[in-house]
Amino acid sequence: MLTHIQIRDFAIIDAVELELGPGLTVLTGETGAGKSILVDALLLAAGGRAGAEVVRHGAERAEVSATFAIEKNAAAHAWLNEQSIEHEGECVLRRVISADGRSRAYVNGQTMSVQSLRQLGETLVDVHGQMEYQSLVRRSAQRELLDQSGEHRELLSAVSETWRTLSQVKEERDRAAASAQDREARLELLRYHTSELQALDLKAGEADELGAERTRLSQRGRLASGAREIIQLLREAEDVSAEQAISRALSTARHVGELDPTFAPMARLIDESLIALREGVEAVERYESDLEADPQRQEWVEDRLATMESIARKHRVEVSALLDLQAELQQEFQRLDSLEASMAQIEKRLEDAQKKFTAACDKLTAARKSAAKSLGTNISTLMQTLGMPGGKFQIDVRAAESAGANGADDIEFLVSANPGQPPRPLAKVASGGELSRISLAIQVAAVQTDALAGSLACLVFDEVDAGVGGGVAEIVGRQLRTLGERAQALCVTHLPQVASQAHAHVRVTKLTDGKTTRTALHPLTADERVEEIARMLGGINVTDKAREHAAEMLRPAPAKSAPKAAPVKAAAAGASKASAKAAAPAAKKKPARR
């Protein structure tokens, strides 16, 4: 539900804001006052296209902000959650157009692309006018409206689930079929690769060990020289070796320890270092003795590593990954070797999945045809009362060329506005006035379903009463009021019969001082509504009889009570007292009935 709209420097609007409540709100005013500009501004906020021409002359930018309460709007909730935008039941759309035509869009303060804003806007605002239809001419929206009207949620869920399963099995079958095409050649290649790897008989960590051994064998001279130098320094030095020096130090430490017991721990440390030194020298001596030249071993190590590296290069992997590659090739070989049996199992699963999907689609098709007949009859009946006697509406449910997650049906709204004319697609109806009234009939019929009424966006009707008058105009007004009792509706109208049915009434006035022109909004009180309806009835000179007639039209009918709508409020930034007075002429007192 739209709760607030603020507009600055848009077309001839300098600064206006409007608070709205539930129910039917009408916008009235003289031709050219700017009523449809408000609709254009709302469309802009919801992601509509616009350029520099919308910026008020002399202004740097145009800005429109629209606030929506979305507690019951599941589609808007889902979109915001998908985008990770916090909302707490409220959504603020903001659009800024600069004088050079550049556009910026925001959702709850977060920068958004215009395309993304448009996706969200389609869940929040649905405009119906003589030339503008955001949803009902789209085949996908027609299908969704039919399914929502028929409350097909569970059937749709079953179709979607079985379609997902069927798609997964088809993908598995396609992969298996692709593998089967070159199965024999691939098996032969796998036999060769696996036998080569098995013959290599590679052990875990062997490559690293052989690499270290190759380094040791190739650097034997330097290694032996280093070991000999360590042994000489620590044990075979001509003067005093490290071992001899530490042995003497240990002997002295033991004598000192006998004189002073506190020196005993230090003597132990020297003793431990001597033991460690001797063990280290012995290890170096063993290492030196093991460094005997072995050309055959070195050649074998080089050949073994070269074989590993050659196989690894062939498969474009590291040597360390050869064991994992061997396991993968063996698994693929086993899978291909048993492919014929697997294909039979996959085909059986595919057949079962197709049967379940077809059964789910058949149930959904039957439910759609039943709902289409009921909804079509209801809409046709409403069309008779909206100035289209003999008009007929039908919903065509036919088999689609291909089935999918939404079922196996093509849904199309067909309409015949006049007797004798064959039904044609709703999108191709020539008359804008007829199309707008047909849309009204569709929406009124749709909200009779409780499940759908709570999910509707803010419905905006821009002069849907064009081309009608008299009793038909009153019926249009009643239908709009009925719609407003189930969902929020805004209506731009020139007809008093429609305006008198509203729950809230806003007058749009164009003000000028000879130099500049701007639009002002004024929510009307009960007395002011009488004056406005009288003006719509009587023209320039409002007579007492026109006021009496207006008051009669505004008397509440003893039918349904109006929804508890919050009072509509408006403010125009910078408006003077004189201009405010011009925007809201004082209502004259109704004369006594003679």
TrEMBL record:
Pfam families named in the record: SMC_N
Biased composition regions of type Low complexity, renumbered to the chain: 556-586
Domain of life: Bacteria
Keywords: ATP-binding, Coiled coil, DNA damage, DNA repair, Nucleotide-binding
UniProt key word Nucleotide-binding: yes
InterPro entries, A to Z: DNA_recomb/repair_RecN (IPR004604), P-loop_NTPase (IPR027417), RecF/RecN/SMC_N (IPR003395)
The RecF/RecN/SMC N-terminal domain, residue ranges: 1-516
Region called Disordered, residue ranges: 555-594
Coiled-coil portions: 322-363
Family as reported in the entry's similarity comment: Belongs to the RecN family.
Classification via PANTHER family: DNA REPAIR PROTEIN RECN
Function: May be involved in recombinational repair of damaged DNA.
Protein name per the record: DNA repair protein RecN
Species annotation: Steroidobacter flavus
Gene name, Swiss-Prot/TrEMBL: recN
